[in-house]
Here is the input.
Amino acid sequence: MYTTTAGRTFLNAYNKKFAKEYTARTFFEEVFVPLFFDHPKYMMTAGNSPLENPKLSWDDMIKGKKPFETPEHRQERIKKMIHKVETEKAEASIAIGYGVLNDSVATASQMSNIEFPDSKDDIYLSWIGAGLGIGVTGGITILFDYAPLLLDVFDGWQYYREYLEKTPSMKGNQINTWNGNWIAHRYGRYFDETDPAYGVCSLEKTTEELLNLPTVMWTKVLLGIALKHSMTEMLVGYLYNIGQTNTTIGFIPFRLEEIYRPNLFYERIFGTSDFSKNIHQIEKLYGTAFGLKAACQYGSIGVRAMEPKGLKDFLPKKEDTKKIGYKNDEEQKITFNTYLIWILAMLNNEKLWGISRETAELLLKYEAGAKSARTDRKNKVNKLLESATEKQFLLNMIPIIEDEQEKEPYENLGKMVHAMPRDNFSYFNTLIRFQYALLNK
Here is the structure.
């Protein structure tokens, strides 16, 4: 039913922006249906409603095995749909996201003995809202009840229709997937307002005869939204999937400021030129550690959910901590830089970048100060850097302090580590380890 809420928010904003007076029904009949369903290829599936023709397979039609239906047939079904909405109670076959009216079907678990108002507007709005969902990787659709974003999603509808019309071998029914690609493109750094649809996405070949829209990474969509809509507060999204079986994850807050923080730090630390040149590779790494569905278990989506895959292996632990080895490899450099920036974003303290580097320099200077016992000093440093807890770190620092004349830098470091939140230590020590490996390359 949240589709109705988003649909209402959108329609109110649309009427205000364009000085229109559409009702839910008139917008559905005059704008939505002509664009989505009054064509040989639909923009979204119509489920069990009269809008859908169950006898036709889109794959077979595109391949020429079955004829497309006639405009007259479509008009008949559209009229049946309006009649059904106006004369029957809201339920799953005519309202997107609603439950059923009897216990004989698979979605009977959504039945309720609560008497809901029989609003016809709500039914029409559910279709409009469903068309505004943003599809991302993992088979998840995100629906935001935020008017500026919904209006921008709507702007992409016409271009999806154009894609379908000019590409005979392209499958239909992918409006949510299109919305994901469109928003990532619309909020990207290289969006051209004079040619809005240029470079939205590249179609994928599913068979020798069919083309498909690729699903966009959720991180790319959220980074775009965070860049476009600077918000210190949270933006709540409803996460779900409607298919043969319906899946609901629920309402999840997105912390946009946190989500964009890694990009902000990357640009500051490594420079705008480096960031702009490598942005596509950088953003592909974010959120790959466990995916959006798993990240929702944290209760909200922020910088933690942006963790890059592979970083966890480098975090110090009791055993089998992965060694950090820099090579003259551009791809590895970008990956390691992204690791460093994500750690810094988790710590949310830019000063720790300089402190970690100064610590790495201090340890290398300590190693170089030995005459005949350099190996011994290197072992002490390695033991310090492999400390899995702040207590181990402080204990492993004692033998190093005993060898040094200038003890103040170590004492200051020890005080800072001791005062640091326990969850932050592992990230801070990993930051030092990467800085040490880079300077020691």
Q: What stands out?
A: The CA atoms of residues 132 and 154 lie 7 Å apart. Strands lie at 134-136, 140-144, 204-205, 211-212, 235-241, 247-254.
